[in-house]
Each structure stands twice: as structure tokens, then as C-alpha cells.
Design brief:
This protein has 223 residues and is α/β, with parallel strands linked by helices. It has four helices and eleven strands.
Length: 223
């Protein structure tokens, strides 16, 4: 009699894995930017938690409108607005031991910036960073991405930056050498809103901005 051999089970049926459903407003927000000096492809956001997508939220703290507040513990950057509102962006932050906190100002801005690793970065990973000790020109493979905001304490360069990334899947993680990395489309958006001399507050490990509900964007992801 035909049939399955004793003790054998039928092979498992393949399980279909559903593609994540992403709001069209977010897809538009992270779409290609062919107008850029280096035409920027769309960012694949399918593997990123939607809470890290750019959105306007209630903001419970009392910083002045225009201030940038970075909450490394929750992996968010806030651009404070009036009436206890803020634009919230997901970020990647420094690994353990490389994080920085304190107050600074944006004293320099650059589009498609040149990247030069610090001596500490070269010492930590000479094979990866050593070849670029004299700098890497801006472009799609440059780790600073499409824009950079340079943070200073007085006249001293802290060597920390808010910048784009070539690794969008790292948003929401502890991964960088202390800098704050953002989706390229998000740093382009933030760059356009932030003037020189903007105040920046990076919270320490004991401080957090309380989570808040997002407001509603239009169908192009604009607020």
C-alpha cells in the first residue's frame, strides 16, 4: 500500500513571509532625490521600525524652539518647535564607551561633506579607516552621507557630527564612533531647517524624552 514511511512526516509547506506594509507618506519621505549633486536613490526602510521615521510629535520638555535635542537612549533627535511640538527623527548613536553628552552649537554645515577619520578611529580599526587618513571625497559611498552638521563647544570642535549614513539599517542602534547618524533624506531635511549657531543638547544616559504620539502628516510625508 502506498503511503508515507513509518515515522516520517510530510515535508513542511513553505511559509509565505508578508512584506511589511509601509505608509505611502513615509515611502514618499524616503524616496529618491535625483536633484542632488550625487543623485540619491530611495532608502530601503522596510527593515527599520516605523517609530524611527520622521514625524511631528508632542514634546514634553521646555527647550526653546529651534533647539536640537538628542536622546541617545531612545535613538531620537528632536527639532523643538513652538507649542510643545517637535519634529522627531530616528538616529543611530555611539557604541558603548564612545557616546558623548553635553551642550554644543552648530558652527559649520556641509553638503556632501568630505570625511577624514580621527587618529582614534584609525587606531581602533587601521584596516578599515587607515586608507582614508588623508580624507575621502563626498559621494554616495562616503560614511557622512549627504549632509553634516559640525558640533562645537565655544570655538573648540568636539569632533562629533550629525550626519547622513550609507547604512540606513543601523538607524535605531548603537553603532557609530560617537557621531549621530540619520537617514540621508532626514539629514537633508534637517539641514534645510537648522541655521548656524543652533543650540544642541545631547542628553546623558540618565535622561530621556518621554515617548509621544505622532501627529498626522499629509500623503507626501510633510508636516
Amino acid at each position: 500500500m502506498a503511503g508515507l514511511a513509518a515515522g516520517c512526516a510530510p515535508p513542511p509547506r513553505p511559509v509565505a513571509i508578508a512584506e511589511p506594509i509601509i505608509d505611502p507618506g513615509f515611502l514618499a519621505m524616503y524616496d529618491a532625490r535625483p536633484d542632488e549633486r550625487f543623485p540619491l536613490p530611495a532608502t530601503d526602510i522596510s527593515h527599520v521600525d516605523p517609530k524611527y521615521f520622521r514625524q511631528e510629535v508632542d514634546y514634553p520638555r521646555n527647550e526653546q524652539p529651534g533647539t536640537l535635542v538628542i536622546d541617545p537612549g531612545n535613538k531620537f533627535l528632536y527639532l523643538v518647535r513652538a507649542n510643545h511640538r517637535a519634529l522627531r527623527y530616528g538616529v543611530g548613536v555611539g557604541k558603548a564607551g564612545l557616546a558623548w553628552s553635553g551642550r554644543a552649537r552648530v558652527r559649520r554645515k556641509a553638503e556632501w561633506p568630505r570625511w577624514t577619520p580621527t587618529s582614534d578611529m584609525i587606531a581602533r580599526d587601521p584596516d578599515l579607516n587607515g586608507p582614508w587618513r588623508n580624507g575621502m571625497a563626498g559621494g554616495l559611498t562616503n560614511p557622512l552621507g549627504a549632509r553634516a552638521l559640525y558640533l562645537y563647544e565655544g570655538d573648540r570642535d568636539t569632533m562629533y557630527r550629525i550626519h547622513g549614513t550609507t547604512e540606513p539599517n543601523t538607524i535605531g542602534t548603537n553603532v557609530s564612533s560617537g557621531c549621530i547618524r540619520m537617514f540621508n533624506q532626514d539629514i537633508i531635511d534637517l539641514y534645510s531647517r537648522v541655521p548656524l549657531d543652533t543650540n544642541v543638547l545631547v542628553l546623558d544616559a540618565s535622561e530621556h524624552v518621554e515617548p509621544s504620539m505622532p501627529l498626522v502628516a499629509d500623503n507626501r510625508g510633510r508636516y
